[in-house]
Amino acid sequence: MSRDTAATQAVGHIQDLIRRGEVRAGEKLPSERELARILGVSRSTLREAIRALIVTNVLVSRHGDGTYVSSLEPDLLSAPLTLAFDTQPALAVHLFEARRILETACARLAARRVEDEELEKLEGLVGARNTDIEELIDSDLALHTAIAHATRNPILLALMGSIGKLALESRRATATLPGQAARTRRDHRAIVQALRRHDPDAAAEAMDAHLRGVERAFRRHEKGVTGNIARSPAT
């Protein structure tokens, strides 16, 4: 067995320890010598596995104190994906595709489970006349998050947290486009009306239409930015 293969297996074993609750969030791992014995690997292989889990924020190294399991918060665990997105702008198209898949499913499920109190909150968000860009973004995030909460599914909510963080820059890019704020309010109103009727198909369709519109707006923004760069004089 190669060292890389052994390290990959060791990563899986450490993750299993965490899943079984043998080592919990915030707790310190056994010493390197002890953990290598438990996993049946060499200390050099164990170090490779620990490095891999530190990179993905599952583990945290505290100099002079040892290695700990991180808080395992969804935002923390999504950080490597955030870095990939920041360094590979071409992933934007895949992000919009992922949002359509995930958020239409959330809207469909929320239509079946949303409660009157949540509908009142959603309608309040739709009715808000925010003019400040940051307020618009906050309101948009709040509405999409509220729909995820209405699914009563903690996994979907965690996934939406990660997706929402990744989509923040595209929200900023499109919020300033002429007419986009009005289009977003109109789209949001259609989504909330479908939720009010407890109509899963209509809610999913309204969410899909909204996200496709946002993607088109984002593409126009990116095209404009690229065009401006292309027309800029060389320095």
Helices and strands, with pairings:
Elements: H1 3-19, H2 32-39, H3 43-55, E1 59-62, E2 66-69, H4 74-77, H5 79-87, H6 92-113, H7 116-127, H8 133-150, H9 154-166, H10 168-175, H11 180-196, H12 200-231
Antiparallel strand pairs: 1-2
How do the strands of the widest beta sheet line up side by side?
Answer: 1-2
Low-confidence stretches: 228-235
Alpha plus pi helix count: 12
Helix and strand element order: HHHEEHHHHHHHHH
List keywords for this structure.
2 strands, two-stranded antiparallel ribbon, mainly alpha
Fold and architecture overview:
It is a single chain. The chain has 235 residues and is mostly helical. It is 74% helix and 3% strand. The protein is built from 12 helices and 2 strands.
Explain briefly what this protein structure is:
The chain has 235 residues and is mainly alpha-helical. It contains twelve helices and two strands.
